[in-house]
Structures are given as C-alpha cells and as structure tokens.
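Our collaborator T.R. sent over the components below with a one-line note: 'Predict the complex.' Nothing else. No constraints on interfaces, no templates requested, no preferences about which chain binds where. So this is a plain run: every listed entity goes in together, and whatever single assembly comes back becomes the starting point for the next discussion.
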Amino acid sequence: MLRKILLPTIFLVLGYGFWVSPDFKEIAAGVAIFLFGMLSLEEGFKAFTGGILERILQRTTNRLWKSVSFGILTTTVMQSSSLVSVITISFLSAGLIGLASGIGIIFGANLGTTTGAWLVAGFGLKVKISAYAMPMLVFGIVLVFQKSKSLKGAGYILAGLGFLFLGIHYMKEGFEAFKDAIDLAAYAMPGLKGLLVYTLLGAAATVVMQSSHATLVLIITALAAQQISYENALALAIGANVGTTITAILGAMSANVQGRRLAGAHLVFNVTTGIVAIVFIQQFLLAVNGLSDSLGIAEDDYTMKLAVFHTLFNLAGVIIMLPFTGKLVTLLERVLSKRERLVDEPLYLNEAAMELPESAMQALRNEMGHLFENAYELIVSALSLKPEKLRSSQDLKQLVAASPEVEKIDIDDIYDRRIKVLYSAIIAYISQVQSSASEHFGEELYQLRMASRNIVEAVKDIKHLQKNLVRFSQSPNDKIQEQYNNLRLQLAVVLRELAEVRVDEAEGISLLSLDSIQVVLEEGDVTANGELDRLIREDSISAEMATSLMNDSAYAYDVADNLIQMARILFAPSERELREVENELLLNEEEIGELLKAEDEEGSN
Amino acid sequence: MTSEKLIDKFHTLLNMERRKQKEKRDKIRTLLKKLKKQQMVLKGKLEKEQSADDRKRTKRNLKVIQAQRKKGIKLCKSIKCK
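Returned assembly:
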C-alpha cells in the first residue's frame, strides 16, 4: 500500500516544487545527476569484479580486523557503501564468506563512506569541480563505447565521477540561488526537538534517495549555502546513517537467511551508532571542536566540521560494536534461524548471489554440494546403513554384516522432498546464470548441469536396486544373500571413499583420488569378474536370481559410476589450470584395465 | 640474473601462449610433487598395515598413484618441464 502511494506522492511533491521554484529544480536535478553518477560508478566497478575483487575479498577477510579494513578501503576507493554491501551480501549468500566477516566489512564500509563527506567538504565545495566534470564525462563516454570490458568499466567510472561532480555543482548552485528566494534556515529547530525531527528527516530523505552519500552531499551543500543550521545538519547526518540501512534491508530481501542476518547487523550497527550520537551529542561536539582545532580547520568551517563529526560518530560505532561481533552473530543466528522444513529448499541459490558471476558460480557449486549431501544420505539409507557410521573408520564388512536385513525406505517421497526441489532449482538457476554470465562460464555451467543429472540418476538407480536388496537380504539362499551384501559393501566402499575425497578436497589432488574409486568399482563388477558365471555353474543360485543379480549389479555399478562422474566435476579444483592438468593425469579406461589385469596376475601368482 | 634470463622472463611476460605453457608446467610440477608425497605416505602405510583388506586397498591406491605419476612425468617431458 505504502509503496503504491509513495511514487505518485514523490512525483507530486517534485512537480509542485519545480512549478514554484526553478532553483529547487536545479537542486533536484543536481541530486538526480549525482545519483546517476553513483549508478554509473557502480556499473564501472562491477566490470572489475570478475575475479580480482573476489580473490581479494576471500583472502583478506579471514580475520575480523582484515574484514573491517577491507570495508574501509573498498568503500573509500569506490565511494559506494551500497556496492560494497551488495557484493558482501552476494558473497555471503553464496557461502564464500562467513557472517562475522560480512559484519566486519559492513562496519568498515560505514567508516569508509565517511571519506565522501571529507572529499565533498574539502574539495568539492572549494574548487570549481564542474570544470573537471566536463572532460571526465567526454572521456568517460568515449571509453564506454569501447569493446574491451576493462576500458568500458573505466569509462563508466570516469563518467560516474563526472556526473557526481556535475551533480554536486548543480546542488551547490541551486542552494546559492535558492537562499535569495527562500530562507530555509528560518525553519531551523534548536535543542532536542530539532535533533530528533532532523534525524527523522535525514532518514526519510535517505530512504527516498536510497543513498546516504547523496543525502550527505545535499546536507553539505545546503550547509555551505547556510540554508540549514550546523546543529540541524549534524542531526540530518545521523538520520542519513540510519536511513541507509533500508538499502541493505531491501537488498537482503532477495537473499538467503545469511543475507538477512547481515542486513540485521547493518541495522543494529547504524541504529546503535545513531542512538549513541544523539545521546552524546554534546560530547561529540566538544570532540569535533577539539579535533578540528588540531587539524587546523577554521572555527566557522562547518562543512568540514560536519565531515569530522560524521567520521567520529561512525568510528565510535565501530569501536563500540566491534567487541560484540561474536555476540551479534549469535543473536542474529538465533533470531533469524533457518526453519526446519519437511520439504528441503535451496540454501544458496538466490538473486543476491546472482549479482556477480563468480558468486553465482560458487552458489551453484555449494547448492550442488547440498544436493549431493541429500542424495548421499538417501543412498546410504537405502543400503540400510548410517551416514555417520559410513564416514567413521569402522570396518565396512562389519557395518554391512551388522544390518543383514535391508529395510525398505520410501525413496519416492524422499526424492520429492529432498532431491527434486533442489535439482529443479539448480537447473533453473543455471539457465538464469547462463543468460547473464559471460561465455567464460559456459562450459562450467554445462558441466554442473551434467553433474546434477548424475546425482539424480544415481538416486533413480538406487531406487531400482532397493527392491531386490530388500527381497534378497531376507532370502533363505545364503549365496544370493551374500551376493547382495557384496553389492552393498561395494557401494559402501565407494561412498566412503567419495566422502574422504570430499574432505581432502583442499589437498589439491582430489580429482586424481577418484581413479582409485573407479578401480574399486571395476574390480567389484560381479558380471565382469566371473563371479556370476561361477554361481550359475555351481547351481548356487537360480536363473531368475542370476538375472536379477545381473540387473542389480548393473544398477549398483551405475549408482557408483554416476557418483564418480559427478565427483569429477563437483570435487574438481576451482582453479581452471589445475583442473585441466588434473584431468590430463586421470587414468582412462584402458589404463584402469591394465591396472586390474596386473592385479589379477599378481593375485594368481 | 644474467641478461639472457632477463630477456627470457620478458618474453614469457609478453607471450600469452608461452605464459600459459609455463603455468601448465608449474601446475604439473606441483601435482607431481604432491603425488610423490602421497606415494611415500602410502608406502609407509603399507609397511605398517596388518589386515589383508587394508593392505590390498593401500596397494591398489599406490598403484594408481604410480600410474598417474608415470603419466604426469611423460606429459612433463612432452612440454619440456625442466
């Protein structure tokens, strides 16, 4: 409802303002150009996020202080805390970074964004920046039309800066002319009432503009034109800080629970900082005066003093909140907890992760890991084994012998609730990513699609196998019972080895370890190793049993083979070059055959 | 560093194809080192292994690694790993 009336109201207010005052039109145009500049700047920086930023982000956020520093640095360079928030949310949603690291980045971004006030107050108002804006726009637009991604990105950044400068110029000019017509300073409100009212005004303005940076520039230019009092400007700056959390909350709506937790942390931080600033406003003013004196800022240079205040209260917020990061994480995890559902749902696939190709790919890999885990549990349960015991070092023969009778489980139901939903979501997500990501990821996306199909095929094969596993595990014929237990054991070996390879992924030879599993699989193939012929010859099993065993042996082989094929893709190193080299060293069918032959010869000697 | 080495490095930097080859060589070398390490670990394990099943498993893994190393060394020679 509010959303429906918000846009027409804004249009009406603006329209009325333009009709009443041409100077207001100039100020509003300044804000619009400034916001457009921010968008252009974000677009430009996004062009450089195809690897470099992600690598830095992953490497430099393992400690809290590093996360904070990363937030400060990137926001200072990019002059957009929104972009940093969006990247952080997409990385967090994709599972690339943890919540504590994300919170650290957001704290840092809050501090980094204060450099914008320094730049505008110290440089933007004192120099005729429109003179810089024009060449920047011209060169920027020329670069935007280039084919190279980097040049295009640089063009957007340059044009973005040009628009920012131009926006500031128009706001400055507008306020200068505006003050001759209307004196907004007459509406100044002193005391606590003014502090609260202007804080709310600052928050509302930021919610509408979706940029605290734009609000702050507006405040600074209005303050420079003496259209608002210094006291009220401070309150507006506090409000802008609180209002900016709306951007993060809106961004987190399309994110998963981790993204929502991060938005929650952002809200807690900015509201706490705002309350601290309001309660201790007098102390902050004293500190600002003292600091300004030592920095050589003139007593009546209120725009610079506003910049000092902005930095100081955000710094205070970081100092106050940083020691409580761990507790904040616990609180957010408790308040925004994952709901236990009968029907599983994707954990990583969300729109926020799709913001960047790298995070989208990581989200896909993580979700496929989730799908694999569910399929793994289902397959292990279908063999009447327990996943935790299979992952332990307990002897597998004993484990299989401990549960001789296979219990039937409702595979169709588990498939519908825990596999199909994820599989469908993965396929849909791949299609979405494919349409937006570059060709660079095309092959990998195809591979991931194949791997998810392998998982589903393995589940379908175990469903076929289960029927006779249950039937023959209760058979009075010891021989057929033994053969079906062998199938269970063979699959258990493959499943345990796969689990081990997954844990050892970091070792760097994960793909190569899969060759050993392939050898186990070929070795145990009852149809190929002559075991079946022997049983028929010795009349140990009936012809019907033999055909069932042949079919089921093929199903067991397919379960394992599908899982190995999936692992070749999913457990492969993310580094392309390493992946390619590992693939070259993998043994082919012929080489595996030779190994088996040599083993046979060794066994017969 | 001799001037020849310096020129060689400069050439590698400029030549994309050559750079890729160098990266590949480095990766193979790293992998071969890891496989060698793994081989040593498995050899040590094999000596201590008591149960027949575990011995068989370790022996099999050792053979796979030996075959992969053989393949890696061959590949390394073909692209002139030093």
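Summary for T.R.: The CA atoms of residues 4 and 33 of chain B lie 28 Å apart.
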